[in-house]
Amino acid sequence: MPQAKTGKVLDINFLGPRKIFFALSAILIVASIASVLTRGLNFGIDFTGGVLLEVGYPRAAELENIRSLLQASGYEGALVQNFGTATDVLVRLPPQAEGMDGSAIRDTVLSLLRQQEPAVDLRRVEFVGPQVGDELTEQGALAMLFALLMILAYVSFRFQWKFSLGAVAALAHDVIITIGIFSLLQIPFDLAVLAAILAVIGYSLNDTIVIFDRIRENFLRLRRETSEQVMNVSINQTLARTIVTGLTTLLVLFALLFVGGDALYGFSLALIIGVVVGTYSSIYTASATALALNVSTVDLLPPQKEEDETLKELP
Fold this sequence. Notes:
Elements: H1 3-6, H2 18-38, H3 45-48, E1 50-56, H4 63-72, E2 79-83, E3 85-93, H5 102-116, E4 121-128, H6 130-158, H7 161-185, H8 191-221, H9 227-259, H10 262-292, H11 297-300, H12 304-313
Antiparallel strand pairs: 1-3, 1-4, 2-3
Helix pairs in contact: 2-7, 6-7, 6-8, 7-8, 7-10, 8-9, 8-10, 9-10
């Protein structure tokens, strides 16, 4: 690839080993799907329904004692964890018997906690019914499907259908792997994580569009080069932008992960995974898929017949 024509600094053959990365992506996708089918997702209260209480203690709370107390009182599967500081505790209870009032459960649990520590202060309580949880699960899945379909239409309109398939393949790749990691590690999956995955779709698409824009420009400028050479030139030219954008985004997300507390843990972790996987997929899934579909300069040129007829009409 001639240096003088492109003016690029780097000359990395990104797409040369694309078959290896295709195989790696396929393994990760299969493993993610297998994990979701076998282990499932650790859905939070937003999807499963149940009761959530946030309580404050005057001193550091003993989580094991709280878990033992709730389990001995018949609240099996209660999740007890610190929420921000050692004195703030979050109690998540799975769906209870049908017909049980959320206020009654709140009062009962608060009474139990005050048996150990009379100064326990109730900060927040939420109750989500199983029916609402089912509706949120369905709506969340439809939101991701709708986003992918709209992106397919948008990229087809702006570029060409081969590029659009590459973009959607990359986005599906990012979503499946992110969900697969949450399934494998059994990290709670709630509405905040779903919002993060939708944000990952937007981030990954933006990165892909930047590369596709440069590929389109170079297809029209470097017509003597092969499609693989043009794509490699384009990826090298946008590499600095990709690295700077990714690193600055990750700095913010790691700050949220370490100092944001449990409330932002799943959200920030999903975004971190998505940014890393999305940067990878913009090159080795989106661009490589378009290349596998034999995209070329001809696909981006206007129909030749229309140009010839226009020229004939000129005096």
